[in-house]
TrEMBL record:
It comes from Pseudodonghicola flavimaris. Gene3D superfamilies: FAD/NAD(P)-binding domain. GO terms for molecular function: oxidoreductase activity. Keywords: Oxidoreductase. The keyword Oxidoreductase applies. PANTHER family: FAD_NAD(P)-BINDING DOMAIN-CONTAINING PROTEIN-RELATED, L-ORNITHINE N(5)-MONOOXYGENASE-RELATED. Its EC number is 1.14.13.-. This is NAD(P)/FAD-dependent oxidoreductase.
Length: 489
């Protein structure tokens, strides 16, 4: 085992969160930075998800860094490869590749009283006074344990581990799940396959989106006159902030969203039974609202069958639903999402006085302002508990968090504070506030269970307010939210 490589700031993860954190730290004069990345390139979600049809469900000009704008987005909603190219371009231009250590997956981290001692699965060691975990929420594929799954003789893979070698022409394809990924890839697969069978445990609300090419003339305008780009982003931001009204249950907003959804469904689905099968049995917003112009037309195709039930078991090529309905398949695609609320529990993180983060979170994830945990000095999370969104761009949340962390590190320098952690009473008050505010939302009271919730039914994923509220709150938060960590014995 080699000696530990020491730096001032150690970041784990080189997706949007990790890159933005490094850029904000540099703005505060922090230059001794190392980024650990388990893969061979940056990009996170946009590096891993390469299925056909992959795209952002937030407009491109809003789903990008405020300080690293891109005037050349090709579409209103950028396809995945273009987002990955954008991130690579930012990393190259800003020299972030020089900070990265690839093939370094986090194994364990321990606070020794002065530094975070970090070990990766290759046995390499790193040490830093400040550790930022930018791991993302959607990186550990979730494949349910279905009896007989190993008996399936054909290609079987998760959407985030897409098998590019599979040719769907003439094949019978089974898709398990109807979440965000399936809504994007199923229409593409249906154009190629002989037949597609969708096993849909719960129907999603899918709204249309104003996706269109951004003309070369408009792109040239954004390049020449940057203020036009800023106006576009401002308008998009406020348009999407208004969608929060749906989750707050405002009648006018809910009626408008439901009218848009119903009009889309009825326009594309003629069969009454299929319409019924595609009608969610819960209030709009309870689960993630999806956007697609291709989903319902794809399900109306002659070569697509919807089985409105989950998959119960597999017997070779034969797939049996919970209702007893069956389908034959040559290819099996799991569109079953990711480990979210349980992903961080597997981390081997040891804080002050030997505290285990996994043990601390046995009753559920918690972090003050979604960022830090008492008893774990100088440890920060990007897109941690209660900082996900259901209505706007998470890049805006990441930027607010990174700016807060970078300012905090700078303030620690100025005040000669080697280590801080959140005040326990502040963290407890924040968690109580989150539970109280979320209890009355559609996410908790809308008649569904979702990946926003943990196994106890507690929503530990989402921020209950607007992006503007969160950004103002973090901008005002400073050292007063933290206490000096006790020195080592």
């Amino acid at each position: 085992m080699s000696d530990a490589l020491r730096c001032e700031l150690l970041i784990v993860g080189a997706g949007f969160s990790g890159l933005i954190m490094a850029l904000e730290a540099r703005r505060q004069g922090i230059t001794d930075i190392v980024i650990l990345e388990k893969a061979s390139d940056i990009g996170g979600t946009w590096r891993d998800n390469v299925y056909p049809g992959v795209a952002c469900d937030i407009p491109s000009h809003l789903y990008s860094m405020a300080r690293r704008p891109n005037p050349d987005w090709s579409r209103s909603y950028a396809p995945g490869p273009e987002i990955q190219s954008y991130l690579q371009g930012v990393a190259r231009t800003d020299g972030l590749y020089d900070l990265c250590r690839f093939g370094q997956e986090l194994s364990a981290a321990r606070w020794d009283g002065r530094l975070w001692q970090v070990e990766t699965k290759t046995g390499d060691r790193f040490a830093a006074p400040v550790l930022c975990l930018a791991l993302g929420a959607l990186h550990l594929p979730l494949i349910p344990k279905v009896p007989g799954a190993k008996s399936f003789p054909g290609p079987s893979f998760h959407s985030a581990r897409w098998d590019q070698s599979v040719d769907f022409a003439g094949k019978r394809v089974a898709v398990i799940g109807s979440g965000a990924s399936a809504v994007q890839f199923l229409p593409e697969v249906a154009r190629q396959a002989h037949h597609v069978t969708l096993f849909q445990r719960s129907a999603p609300y899918v709204l249309p989106r104003a996706d269109r090419p951004i003309t070369p003339r408009l792109r040239a305008l954004h390049r020449r006159w940057p203020w036009t780009r800023r106006v576009r982003r401002w308008w998009l931001f406020h348009s999407f902030e208004a969608r929060h009204m749906v989750f707050r249950g405002r009648p006018m907003a809910v009626r408008k969203a439901m009218k848009m959804w119903r009009r889309t469904l009825e326009k594309t689905i003629a069969d009454p039974q299929l319409r019924a099968d595609l009608t969610p049995p819960y209030r709009i917003g309870c689960k993630r609202i999806l956007s697609s112009n291709a989903w319902y037309p794809a399900l109306a195709r002659d070569n697509v069958t919807v089985i409105p039930a989950g998959l119960s078991r597999i017997e070779g090529h034969r797939l049996i639903a919970e209702t007893g309905a069956t389908a034959e398949a040559d290819v099996l695609i799991w569109g079953t999402g990711f480990h979210v609320t349980d992903a961080l529990r597997g981390l081997r993180i040891t804080g002050r006085d030997g505290q285990s983060l996994a043990r601390r979170w046995l009753r559920g994830l918690e972090a003050h302002l979604g960022l830090a945990v008492s008893g774990f000095p100088n440890l920060f999370f990007l897109l941690g508990p209660h900082s996900g969104l259901g209505h706007n761009s998470v890049v805006l949340m990441i930027e607010a968090q990174a700016e807060h962390i970078a300012r905090l590190i700078s303030a620690m320098r100025e005040n000669a504070l080697p280590a801080v952690e959140p005040r326990a009473e502040a963290q407890e008050a924040f968690e109580t506030e989150m539970d109280d505010r979320l209890a009355a939302t559609v996410w908790q009271a809308g008649g569904c269970s979702s990946w926003y919730q943990d196994r106890r039914g507690r929503n530990t994923t989402l921020w209950p307010g607007t992006v503007a509220e969160y950004r103002k709150r973090l901008a005002r938060a400073g050292l007063d939210h933290y206490i000096p960590a006790p020195p080592p014995p």
